[in-house]
Amino acid sequence: xxxxxxxxxxxxxxxxxxxxxxxxxxxxxxxxxxxxxxxxxxxxxxxxxxxxxxxxxxxxxxxxxxxxxxxxxxxxxxxxxxxxxxxxxxxxxxxxxxxx
Length: 100
Hints:
Blueprint: H1 8-18, H2 23-33, H3 36-53, H4 58-65, H5 69-81, H6 85-93
Helix pairs in contact: 3-4, 3-5
């Protein structure tokens, strides 16, 4: 069995994130906590997931986001076999996107 991310430290991080009130506060916090490349990687994976849910092709996604096919495949696996975190957010932000 793999490592669990459920730790006190992660709880504290998520509690901190939940206090952020707007996009500007998110920028301030995440720019302090993460490297620029980490933020850009998170954003890229999010865009890949959104485009996969929109039924876009791997080629289109790779060309649009710059993501490798390996990254697209990993995100697709998360969408199909993960904890439904992407779909939770998508259902709130983009109710028109087809789920699974």
